[in-house]
Amino acid sequence: MVRRYEETIEVRxxxxxxxxxxxxxxxxxxxxxxVRDGGAREPEAFVWRGRLYVVRAVLDRWQERRPWWRxxxxxxxxxxxxxxxxxxxxxxxxxxxxxxxxxxxxxLGADHGDQWRLLRxxx
Length: 123
Prior knowledge:
The chain is mainly beta. It has helices at 21-24, 68-74; strands at 2-8, 10-17, 39-48, 51-65, 87-96, 104-110, 116-122. The longest helix has 7 residues, at 68-74. The chain is globular.
C-alpha cells in the first residue's frame, strides 16, 4: 500500500561523487547541500513529524513534474503558473527511525528551490 503525503520535511544532504563514491565519505557533505565538484546531492537523513529517519539505501532516482495546479489554486495570482511548473528530483530510499525500527520505503522530492517534501510512503 502506498500513502501520499506531500508534507514539507527537513533533509540532511550529502554529495555523492559520480566517479568515486567511496572517496568523499563524510568529507563530501556540503554545508548547504547541493552539487559540488561534479557530484550529485543525495538525502542522508530526514526529519518527518519530529522523528529522525536515517537513509539506509537509495533505491532509485528520477525527475517528475511538480503538481503545479495545486500551487496555482493556493496563490493569489501574483505569479505565472507556467513559469513555476518545474520538475523536481525524486529519490526512493529505504530508511529507518532507529536500529530497532523496521526499514520503510519513502519517496522524497526536492524542487529547484531546495524545498524538500515527503511524497509517498510504501507499507
